[in-house]
Design goal:
With 213 residues, this protein is mainly α. The chain has helices at residues 4-24, 28-47, 49-62, 65-83, 86-110, 132-150, 155-178, 184-211.
């Protein structure tokens, strides 16, 4: 795995950079695709108020970035308390902080407007690209999956955890588009940037673990 980490990080960084370029330059085919998806999902959201309210609860409480970061903080405390894994706990917290800084920096740099509707079903602050919900969920779930795998979890518990992580990452992206507060490429950007941060963080952890006594 250590030899594959730099390659994985590079393979994820390239599409992230490409999507960032397309969004920043307002590439017409991408904008058209985003608008087509947004119109369809917004029509569904307005029509099905019950499902829309469920998605609001999920995105505002269950998969909210604050909830995800608190989960990471809880895992970091557990690592220190039960395993005295100070290095890994610090690495986990710093990675989450770096992801938040990268996310806000890209948002400020691109300054992409969010979708605007005459009959909105939800609202959100800050710029649109990348989706903070999608990026934070990807970072947290990716880091925790890697840690769980490193601690030897296998079998049904592993597959159940993977399934929960996949549902969370894909689900939060779906809710952001459904609620009309993000374009699809915002969510895709959040997934790509988040996965890139995870790959880079794993590389740092592997190298840090080798040089530490």
């Amino acid at each position: 795995m250590p030899r594959q980490s730099p390659r994985t990080a590079l393979l994820l960084a390239l599409p992230s950079a490409l999507l960032l370029t397309l969004v920043a330059t307002d590439w017409s085919p991408l904008l058209t695709l985003d608008e087509d998806i947004a119109r369809v999902t917004h029509r569904w959201a307005v029509r099905d108020r019950g499902l829309t309210q469920t998605f609001r609860v999920l995105t505002d409480w269950v998969w909210d970035p604050v909830t995800m970061r608190l989960l990471c903080a809880g895992v970091a405390l557990w690592l220190v308390w039960r395993r005295a894994a100070w290095w890994t706990a610090l690495w986990l917290l710093v990675t989450c902080a770096v992801a938040a800084v990268v996310q806000q920096a890209v948002k400020a740099g691109v300054a992409r407007p969010r979708p605007v509707w005459p009959d909105p079903v939800d609202s959100a602050r800050f710029a649109a690209f990348p989706s903070g919900h999608a990026m934070t969920a990807t970072v947290v779930c990716g880091l925790l999956l890697w840690l769980i795998r490193e601690h030897g979890v296998r079998g049904p518990r592993w597959y159940g955890t993977v399934a929960l992580a996949v549902v969370s990452v894909l689900g939060v992206g779906l809710t952001r588009v459904w609620l009309g507060v993000h374009w699809f490429s915002d969510v895709l950007g959040g997934w790509l940037f988040g996965a890139s941060v995870v790959a880079g963080a794993v590389l740092v952890h592997e190298r840090g673990s080798r040089v530490r006594p």
